[in-house]
Design a protein that fits this description.
heterotetramer, A mainly alpha (about 350), B alpha/beta (about 425), C mainly alpha (about 325), D alpha/beta (about 240), A: about 350 residues, mainly alpha, two-stranded antiparallel sheet, 16 helices, globular, B: about 425 residues, alpha/beta, Rossmann fold, seven-stranded mixed beta sheet
């Protein structure tokens, strides 16, 4: 749950630099932004290299990534364990789909509107949860309940097409403004990459901002943070709003990429679980954990699908069976929580900084 | 220093992406021969062969496979010099986004047409992929009617839609009840609350009202959580309805049958509408005597057609299970695409699409004539049939030309 | 001037609980009256109440094990529903293989689930890795995904059904009750009483209660806390085993059937007060009623919606549950 | 004029009367020691003053405003800053980050903030530890961190809850010097709970004695130590005047 490791590493770097009397190293956020820029640049040619089906996997990874970054802000940095991020994903998806299908509004505007709606709903849910002092499991269950209520209500509300959901109307050719391109176009990947890059950048900047530090301090010790002047309620609300808005981006983009959304896809509990598992496997409360987690979880179902479609001989009994991908990531989740509670990235970073200090 | 380490870690991550993606390379590697003049003609089959719909999905994949074998035994595609047909399969896992990416994969693998997908939400996504890639998509099982309201040119459907079945159900009900001398006046309807049940209930209500029936009460329920329908059946009993129409999935329909058995409402008949249970052999064995005399209006394999019987015997022999209607529909859908290729004399998907729009194919499922598509992509000759459980067997009972025996308009309690 | 501790006498506690029970009773009565006005048919509402109570007994039955684990170990066991599904598959398998009466499969499911519970606690949840609440939540979440998909992988998704031999119906003042549901209801009450008796009157029960109220303190007086934790988790799981055998004739057995009961069971646990076995039973009955009345009140909505609304209200207004005390 | 004033403050926990009818007044620049046996309600008093707990009765006034029931962060920003008896560092942060967090509500600019934090860290003698995780600090270090964080928050009045407890006698001197300097140089008002009477005697202008939630006596250190009621309250055991009590 902590990111002592990364800050420790930063601290160690600074100390050595100071002792050696060299120029001060990059501030942590600038260093992280630099790494992000490098990663994004490296990823740009991917859709041109990968075969089309794998291009789709890459886009899926980026959608997971945005979701996990959103979840991580609230539950990793803020320590507010959400079990209902499907609510915000779904609000992003439904707001943009509704505006596009019913009113012909550009998906970009829809995305912004979805972010606003998700943030507002998150603040309302958050306000009541904090006001009534829901903690830990109770908070998690409350978030879950709200996501499920949204699913049930959309399922039976004709104004948003009920259980049928929305199909995004097709256009001729491609249009950035309509966020629609020919099937398999690399533009989808690039746009997702920009959105994911922005999400990670926001998460970096937020983590190192005054507000972000307050949020982490409130997570570590709420009363102590308040006692040095951290406005608790305001920062908790800010955290849930930011987290919800980023998650809503994933929802809106999902709708545009898959051109279809229904209550189960938008608000189903599996969406919440995917956000959690991705962030936890990568490293909860770290900047890069969601990135690592998304790569692993996102490609896992593709790898297992291949394995199941054409299993090697010793796995022949698996042919046509299902659920293997979920089983694998469930096992991974359990093992990681038991053995490396800081996630894959958090643990590796901790190891590195430990070795540096020695 | 640390920057370098992190960059190293990052590139490892990227390698992982590539490795992860490389994992499924074999499935996409077959794409070279796409649409070219040699090799087999590829038809893509998308079904949920894993996940909660796996049993039906597997049935349908096998049905499609049997169709391909049949075509090849008969000498392949004659207009292309006897080229063989090959089925390329994909698993949708019952998830729309997987269905979409798998459809894309099959198309880039050179499929001239797609069949599938059993679930409306998946078919919605695949129909979009088909439209954008200009590859024909012939749906075997897909209940939702919404897909055909977008004006897509590349989507076709063999089975009667949800609305069509429900409309037939209302017609059959008036006719059968009149024949029996107990004309129906008031029908209660229970339906599960997603698009499938709601769509069927809407269409049924409209058709029944047009025929002068009163439809009340109308009761919806959440199939994923309901575990007891006694109160709802009590409500039906209290309403004095003559007939109860039920539009639901398997488990909930079974629970409704159990509740009916408990409450024993004063009904003339139980009337399945696109019902997921009341025409299934599994329902007969699970429900036992309490399911006796239940009616169901649905699409169905043509039990009167010798060719269908032969196909189902073949299936039973090969796979050790009775062939379900979905599998027969998949068979019909593959036959339709193959006929399109034959007619077009080409493997160009656009040409195949135009040919499919014009072909006539004799189906092994119940229909009013050969499969023939209207402008909207719907099979104009698709038809529903009324079935009834009689002495522990599902029998076609109406309309008369498809009937295996006469309807017994009564209840068993 | 002197600081005093009000030694709230037992009688006043009981009085408070009675008062609250009375209030709940009034609320329920009002809800039933409104339902009567809304539906206009006495028999329908009466049947709804009877069905609600019977279904509620089933919910209470499933929630009992969960509340025990929640109350003593403070673990939100997200895998409880999945363990129920495992037990139902065992029950189904035994009936299929041996033709045993479904209720007698309890002889297999209870010990089997007891062992599963013990193994899960020892293997996954005890020790430092399972320390924080989030970790426990994640581990049990992972476990539930694992169990559900394991069942899916090996048994497929086709619903499986078991019929109760000699199924009959009873009339209760015009309402109809099928035998299997009535027996499950009675079984729930019996199990609740058994658990209550065990907690109150056995040495094990005393130790469990001691650990629940003060772990370190219990350690000091020589109770092996880890052992009690494992036993409690195992007993909680065994309750799911018992519930499975009682419920197997009522439901279609599928790998995902746990999901629908899991969340309802959490609502019941919170409503009844965590760790409160009798509370779970009462909470179950209430939720059963809420479900049935929701279908009367909100036509066309899922019965689950009413459950969630009640859940959120309870979480906000009485997080300690209807019969718990605020700490 | 008094900077901090309590009138009739009372607080109960489930029937346990933790504070009853406490009156107290602290002037600007004053150093007030709060003593009393364990369970006398000293920490509860601090919690009520700082807004962590709402009093059941009575008013708290700070710098002329009625601040009863205001939230802790509001009071902290107004200059009412406290330390905790059981140290509560932000576990995921380094020492310097802990300190700079406390300063960020009144210091703009990353460089100035860092400079300010390092000054404070230096002042409490934690410079060597500045970039180590706070959780690695030994007890004495954590005590200093508590102090450093409170100082960084820019206190007008500083409420110190047993800052000397757990420190070796040799470690106490610099802390006491620092506290004295705080008043001399910064004019900070100090209210401190302390068991070590030598420190109380040395620093306090005035001492408030709490017993069973009520003010037992107020006066100069010499006055209260001579008060027989105070001696009684400590169960006849004379408050130790030795530094290593």
């Amino acid at each position: 749950m902590t990111d002592t490791a990364t800050t420790g590493a930063a601290g160690a770097t600074r100390a050595t630099a100071a002792q050696a009397g060299t120029a001060p190293p990059l501030r942590p956020q600038n260093r992280q932004l630099l790494i992000l820029a490098v990663l994004v640049l490296l990823a740009i040619p991917l859709p041109l290299i990968l075969p089309p089906a794998q291009g789709a996997v890459a886009v899926r990874i980026l959608i997971f990534l945005i979701m996990a970054v959103g979840w991580n802000i609230m539950s990793g940095f803020g320590g507010l364990f959400s079990f209902g991020h499907a609510a915000y994903f779904g609000l992003g998806a439904y707001t943009s789909a509704y505006l596009l299908v019913e009113h012909g509004v550009s998906p970009w505007v829809g995305m912004a509107a979805g972010m606003a709606v998700a943030a507002a709903v998150a603040m309302v849910i958050g306000y009541f949860s904090f006001r009534y002092n829901l903690k830990g499991a109770y908070f998690a269950l409350a978030t879950f309940a709200f996501a499920e209520m949204l699913r049930l209500v959309t399922t039976s509300t004709d104004a948003v097409n009920g259980a049928v959901g929305y199909q995004v109307p097709l256009i001729q050719g491609s249009s950035v403004w309509q966020l629609q391109f020919p099937a398999g176009s690399p533009a989808y990947f690039w746009i997702a990459l920009v959105l994911a890059g922005l999400a990670v950048a926001v998460s970096i900047l937020f983590r190192h901002s005054h507000a972000g530090r307050y949020v982490v301090a409130i997570r570590d010790d709420e009363l102590a943070a308040a006692s040095v002047g951290a406005p608790v309620m305001r920062h908790k609300l800010l955290t849930v709003a930011l987290s919800a808005a980023i998650t809503a981006i994933a929802g809106a983009f999902y709708t545009q990429y898959y051109l279809f959304i229904d209550p189960q896809l938008a608000f189903g509990s599996s969406v919440s679980i995917e956000a959690i598992v991705t962030a936890v496997i990568g490293g909860i409360g770290t900047i890069w954990g969601p990135v690592v987690g998304a790569v692993i979880v996102g490609s896992l179902s593709d790898v297992t699908a291949t394995l199941l479609a054409t299993p090697p001989e010793f796995l022949g009994f698996l042919q046509g069976r299902s659920g293997l991908d979920v089983i694998l990531y469930a096992v991974m989740l359990i093992l990681i929580v038991r053995l490396m509670p800081k996630g894959i990235f958090g643990t590796l970073a901790g190891k590195i900084s430990e070795r540096r200090r020695r | 220093m640390i920057v370098r380490k992190l960059i190293a870690a990052a590139s490892t991550g990227l390698l992982l992406v590539t490795a992860g993606c490389g994992g499924s390379a074999p499935s996409g590697a077959a794409g070279d021969a796409a649409g070219s003049g040699s090799g087999p003609v590829r038809i893509g089959a998308l079904h949920p062969v894993s996940g909660s719909m796996a049993v039906d999905g597997l049935q349908m994949r096998r049905g499609a496979q049997l169709a391909v074998e049949k075509i090849n035994e008969a000498g392949g595609i004659a207009s292309l010099g006897g080229r063989d047909v090959q089925l390329t399969t994909a698993d949708t896992q019952g998830k729309p986004e997987i269905g979409q990416s798998e459809a894309q994969r099959l198309i880039s693998g050179g499929a001239v047409g797609l069949v599938g997908t059993y679930q409306s939400s998946v078919s919605s996504n695949v129909s979009v992929v088909a439209e954008r890639n200009e590859v024909p998509f012939v749906m075997d099982v897909t209940a939702a009617d919404e897909i055909f309201q977008h004006g897509y040119r590349y989507s076709f459907r063999v089975q009667p839609g949800n609305g069509a079945i429900a409309t037939s159900a209302a017609e059959f009900l008036t006719k059968v009840s009149e024949q029996a001398g107990k004309p129906v006046r008031k029908v209660a309807i229970m339906h599960e609350q997603t698009d499938f049940g709601t769509g069927a209930a809407d269409a049924f209500t409209e058709a029944a009202t047009d025929l002068g029936l009163e439809v009340a009460p109308r009761i919806s329920y959440d199939a994923t959580t309901a575990s007891d329908f006694t109160s709802q059946i009590t409500q039906v009993k209290a309403s004095g309805a003559d007939v109860l129409a039920v539009s639901g999935y398997y488990s909930d329909s079974l629970l409704i049958a159990q509740a009916i058995n408990a409450v024993k409402p004063d009904l003339d008949a139980v009337w399945g509408v696109s019902n997921g249970a009341y025409d299934q052999p599994k329902f007969v064995s699970d429900a036992g005597p309490i399911g006796e005399n239940y009616f169901s209006t649905n699409y169905h394999f043509d039990a009167q057609n010798p060719e269908t019987r032969q196909l189902r015997e073949e299936y039973q022999r090969r796979y050790g299970a009775p062939m379900r209607t979905g599998a027969v529909l998949a068979y019909d859908a593959v036959q339709t695409i193959a006929a399109g290729v034959e007619h077009a004399g080409s493997t160009d998907p656009v040409a195949v699409r135009n040919a499919i729009a014009k072909v006539k194919v004799d189906p092994l499922t119940v229909g009013d004539g050969p499969v023939r598509f209207g402008r909207d992509g719907e099979n104009v000759n698709s038809a529903a049939v009324l079935m009834q459980i009689q002495n522990g067997r599902v029998k076609q009972v109406y309309p008369p030309r498809k009937a295996e025996s006469d309807p017994d308009y009564s209840v068993a309690w | 001037m002197t600081a005093t501790i009000d030694s709230e006498p037992r009688a006043s506690v009981n009085l408070a609980v009675l008062k609250r029970a009375g209030m709940v009773g009034v609320l329920v009565a009002a809800a039933v009256v409104f339902a009567l006005l809304k539906s206009g048919s006495g028999i329908v509402v009466w049947q709804s109440v009877v069905t609600g109570l019977l279904t509620g007994g089933l919910y209470g039955l499933i929630a009992m094990g969960l509340t025990l684990i929640f109350g003593v170990l403070d673990i939100v066991n997200f895998a409880h529903g999945a363990m129920l599904a495992v037990a139902m598959f065992i029950s189904f398998g035994v009936v299929q293989a041996t033709g045993l009466h479904p209720y007698l499969t309890m002889l297999v499911t209870v010990p089997a689930l007891f062992l599963v519970g013990a193994a899960v606690h020892r293997g996954l949840l005890s020790g430092s890795g399972g320390a924080t609440l989030e970790n426990q939540l994640l581990i049990t979440l992972g476990l539930s995904l694992l169990l559900e998909n394991g069942l899916l992988m090996f048994f497929g998704a086709e619903p499986k059904n078991v019929t109760l031999p000699g199924e009959t119906q009873f009339g209760v003042f015009g309402a109809v009750v099928s035998g299997s549901r009535l027996y499950a209801f009675l079984g729930a009450i019996a199990l609740g009483l058994l658990l209550y008796w065990m907690l109150q009157h056995t040495r094990l029960g005393t130790a469990v209660r001691a650990v629940a109220s003060n772990g370190p303190g219990a350690e000091l007086v020589g109770i092996n806390v880890r052992r009690i934790h494992t036993l409690t988790f195992a007993i909680g799981a065994a309750c799911a085993g018992a519930a499975a055998a009682l419920a197997v004739p009522l439901l279609s057995v599928t790998p995902t059937l746990g999901e629908q009961f899991n969340i309802t069971a959490f609502v019941v646990v919170v409503l009844g007060g965590m760790g409160n076995v009798v509370g779970a039973l009462v909470g179950g009955l209430l939720i059963g009623l809420v479900e049935q009345l929701t279908t009367i009140y909100l036509d066309g909505q899922s019965s689950l919606l009413g459950v969630f609304v009640v859940f959120v209200l309870v979480l906000f207004l009485r997080p300690q549950g209807l019969f718990g005390r605020r700490t | 004029m008094s900077l901090l004033e309590l009138a009739g403050v009372g607080k109960q926990f489930r029937g346990l009367r933790a504070l009853s009818d406490v009156d107290m007044s602290v002037s600007e620049g004053e150093i007030v020691g709060v003593i009393g046996p364990n369970g006398a309600g000293k920490t509860t008093l601090f919690n009520v003053i700082c807004g962590a707990l709402k009093p059941d009765s009575g008013r708290v006034r700070f710098a002329g405003d009625d601040v009863t029931g205001r939230r802790p962060e509001v009071l902290a920003r107004a200059g009412m800053v406290r330390t905790f008896q059981l140290m509560r560092p932000f576990a995921s942060m380094s020492v310097a980050e802990n300190v700079s967090l406390a300063a960020q509500h009144h210091t703009r600019g990353a460089a100035r903030l860092r400079g300010h934090a390092m000054d404070v860290v230096d002042r409490v003698g934690l410079a060597e530890w500045a970039h180590r995780p706070a959780t690695e600090l030994p007890t004495a270090g954590l005590k200093r961190l508590e102090l450093a964080r409170a100082l960084a928050a820019g206190p007008r009045v500083l409420l110190l809850d047993e800052v000397l407890a757990g420190l070796l006698p040799a470690e106490r001197e610099p802390v006491l010097d620092l506290l004295a300097e705080l008043r001399e140089r910064d004019g900070t008002t100090l209210v401190f709970i302390e068991h070590i009477m030598a420190a109380v005697m040395r620093l306090s202008d005035r001492v408030v004695v709490l017993d069973q939630g009520a003010v037992l006596a107020t006066g100069t250190p010499d006055e209260v130590t001579a008060d027989p009621r105070v001696i009684d309250a400590y169960l006849g055991e004379e408050p130790t005047t030795h530094a290593d009590a």
